[in-house]
Design goal:
The complex is a heterodimer of chains A (268) and B (291). Chain A is mainly alpha-helical and 268 residues long. Helix content of chain A is 72%, strand content 0%. Chain A is extended and about 65 Å long. Chain B has 291 residues and is an alpha/beta fold. The longest helix of chain B has 33 residues. In chain B, helix 4 links the parallel strand 1 and strand 2. Chain B has a six-stranded parallel sheet, with helices on both faces. Classes of the chains: A mainly alpha (268), B alpha/beta (291). Chains A and B meet through helix 2, helix 4, helix 6 and helix 7 of A and helix 2, helix 4, helix 5, strand 3 and helix 8 of B.
């Protein structure tokens, strides 16, 4: 794998800075680069999907099968049946025809049927172990087994407290989501309130992890700019940046002093 | 507290977002300019994944679903880099696939492996120590096909060699179905949960994930129920795995290790901004009026 040429690094750096120009404000450069990226992604995906999937797994076996049929049903003629899959696939496009819309329903029905069957298996195998795991001994031994009928391992305070928190959290959060009857008693009200707080804590964890991910994306680009791009940047470019950045900061100060405009206004 | 002081503090709520971006950028930039290290504490989910991969028997392979591209490079590069490093060092054979999410996945995996082979493991050979089968479509259908017979989903590898070509791909001559796979390590922004029901649930093959931090909260439950053997969470997971791989900090060179210190600085800046915003909020409330 060869190292990228300087012009490639420059292009990547300018595209990166162009995309990040959105932080200043929505602008045409950002929108243009965004559309270019989407276009490149879609075009590339189409070619790779044909080359790696549709070509070897559908088109080539079908062509070989049709050739075998043409040679008097030679061995391998069954491959010609792949044409039926292609015909079924094209039925999706009748979504665009009011007159023949019903044809697309055939393939939609097949997809829904397969999806429903798959979902049943998926949900069962995904969630059944979750339900089993939620049954935990509140007084547990060090290896996780219960006090009664467990192994000979010593009782673990840490494991027991952990299980109590785990089971308590599940119960409280589930009580919070019981909307079909009024939360009248103090026990139900208290559990529901605790459930809401526990949910808030989990949302906090979600938010923290969200920040972590966004930061990682930015840091990778920053590392590229510092380690790969900045060594090949000529001195005159830094001089130009040194002259324009303070001007930009000055403009930001002036802009901040003006009445605040929200995102929607800025886009308009 | 004086009215003037409250007014000054209340203004903390109205800092222009661009000043925050600039502060954040400078905070993140500092560790790139002034090199420094922070201690890394290894979490249980990282240690479990490390131990699971370390136990791979010599007659089996690890199947790596590396389905990420530039969009999540910051987190996923480091996550595959450290695991590839581990496997190349230990001589664990692995097969790379890229399932369903991005057609660019195989190229990025190749980049990571090429860099490692060039810098640390020049004796490791493509086709003998690892194989990259490339991109394929199909979610659970492809998983089932690969589990039953990998040749029904992949006819050729990413370089165009037939999977039955013993000269170029000797490794693939002993990889036919899930029985030949010791475990699956799926790395992408949001790994497909379907590995769990359709492969682990049916065949019992251990599964490990490498995911973006934002997605990790939904996957922790699978670690508790042992449906996942372990998980690398964002940059943190990569840095922790690197710490297990190289106890000597001077030998750690992965992207995760490079980014973890700037990330700590960035998080500190964000925490400070949250604290300042809250001070402004309470000052405004005490003064009367929301702003």
């Amino acid at each position: 794998m060869t190292n990228p040429a300087p012009w490639q690094i420059w292009l990547a750096a300018l595209v990166t800075l162009g995309i990040y120009s959105y932080l200043w404000n929505d602008n045409r450069l950002y929108r243009m680069l965004l559309n270019v990226m989407i276009g490149l992604g879609v075009g590339y995906s189409f070619i790779v999907i044909w080359k790696n999937v549709l070509g070897p797994l559908w088109w080539q076996p079908m062509v070989r099968g049709l050739e075998a049929v043409a040679h008097g049903f030679a061995p391998g003629s069954a491959g010609a049946l792949w044409i039926l899959v292609g015909l079924l696939g094209t039925l999706w496009y009748f979504q665009f025809s009011r007159k023949y819309l019903w044809l697309s329903r055939i393939v939609i029905g097949m997809t829904l049927g397969a999806g429903a069957g798959m979902t049943f298996k998926q949900q069962f195998l995904l969630n059944a172990p979750q339900i089993t795991d939620s049954f935990r001994p509140l007084i547990a031994r060090a290896d996780g087994s219960p006090l009664l009928g467990g192994t000979s391992a010593p009782v673990s305070l840490w494991m027991s407290v952990n299980n109590i928190i785990f089971v308590g959290t599940i119960v409280c959060v589930m009580v919070y989501f019981l909307f079909s009857f009024e939360h009248k008693t103090a026990l139900v009200r208290g559990s529901a309130k605790a459930g809401r707080w526990l949910l808030m804590i989990s949302f906090g964890a979600f938010f923290g992890n969200t920040v972590m991910t966004r930061m990682a994306v930015f840091l990778e680009r920053l590392q590229f700019l510092v380690d790969d791009w900045s060594p090949i940047v000529p001195a005159w470019f830094w001089a130009l940046a040194g002259a324009t950045v303070p001007a930009g900061v000055w403009m930001a100060i002036r802009r901040a002093a003006q009445p605040h405009k929200n995102e929607g206004d800025a886009r308009e | 507290m004086g009215k003037q002081m409250l007014n000054a503090l209340a203004r903390l709520q109205n800092i222009d977002r661009r000043w925050l971006y600039l502060t954040l950028a400078l905070a993140c930039l500092l560790p790139f300019v002034v090199k420094m290290r922070l201690p890394v504490y290894v979490s249980p989910e990282t240690r479990e994944l490390f131990n699971a991969i370390d136990r791979c028997p010599p007659d089996k392979v690890v199947l790596v679903d590396s389905a990420w591209d530039a969009g999540s490079l910051g987190e996923n590069w480091g996550q595959v880099e450290v695991v590839f490093d581990h496997m190349l060092r230990r001589g664990i054979k692995f097969v790379v696939i890229s399932l369903d999410i991005t057609p660019l996945g195989p190229q990025f995996a190749d980049k990571v492996i090429s860099k490692l082979v060039a810098s640390k493991y020049p004796n490791r050979k493509y086709g003998v120590d690892w194989v990259n089968l490339g991109f394929t479509k199909g979610d659970w259908q492809a998983m089932q096909q690969i589990a039953k017979d990998i040749r029904r989903q992949y006819k050729r590898d990413s370089r165009g060699w037939s999977l039955d070509d013993a000269q170029h791909l000797p490794l693939m001559q002993r990889v036919h179905n899930i029985d030949d796979v010791y475990m699956i390590y799926s790395v992408t922004y949001s790994p497909m949960e379907n590995w769990i029901p359709f492969v682990h649930g049916v065949y019992g093959t251990p599964i490990g994930f490498g995911c973006a931090g934002i997605q990790s909260t939904t996957y922790y439950r699978y670690i508790l129920s042992r449906q996942l053997v372990g998980m690398l969470v964002g940059v943190r997971g990569a840095a922790e795995y690197d710490a297990l791989l190289y106890p000597d900090p001077a030998r750690r060179t992965s992207l995760g290790t490079h980014l973890i210190v700037p990330q700590a600085f960035g998080h500190t800046a964000i925490i400070l901004a949250v604290v300042l915003g809250n001070i402004g909020f309470f000052a405004a409330r005490r003064r009367g009026g929301s702003r």
